[in-house]
Amino acid sequence: MYVLDLKKELGRSQVRKDIFAFAGFALSLPGAPNRQGVLTITLAPRPDGSGQLKCKFMVDLEGATSLCAAASTVFRNLAAEALDTSLGQDFEYIVPLAAFEVQDKVWFVQEADFSLKNVKSRAREFIAERLLPTLTRRLPIVFHDLEWWGEG
Questions:
Q1: Angstrom distance (rounded) from CA 94 to CA 77
Q2: What is the pTM of this model?
Q3: pLDDT tens, 116-127?
């Protein structure tokens, strides 16, 4: 079994300077063993303090290209499922972006932008206390340790 070193892989990423936080996860797909993945989160603040958390979910399909459709179905429900009061008063809306497959369908990638009223000062709290717990309740996903980029 291949073990992905998330810090090492993210360190190689061309966008690492933009990453605010990341977490590994296990995704349950129908009729398949759990697939491992990583969530990266970047910030896009506006001058007024509001802005977006740009989330990128990357799932290792381990060569099972037939799972692309199942992964797409899980994340297609993200917009409807995430609009939940448990995301709190800072949450405004979600903009799900198109899913895409990379490296000959070895990886499945889904992006979503969460718009917040106060992203600059409340991003950490929102991610740790609102976003990840809500996603865990609403999607077949279990997150591993959340890490803040740049902290040892």
A1: 12
A2: 0.82
A3: 998 878 899 999
Q: Which residue ranges make up each domain of the chain?
A: 6-148
In whole angstroms, give the CA distance from residue 152 to residue 75. 31
DSSP string, 32-101: S--EEEEEEEEEEE-TTS-EEEEEEEEEE-TT-GGGHHHHHHHHHTHHHHH--GGG-TTEEEEEE---EE
In terms of residues, how long is the chain?
152
The Cα 78–Cα 1 span in angstroms is 29
Q: How many CB atoms lie within 10 A of CB 50?
A: 16
Residue 142, beta-bridge partner list: 26
- Per the listing, tokens 């717990």 go with 133
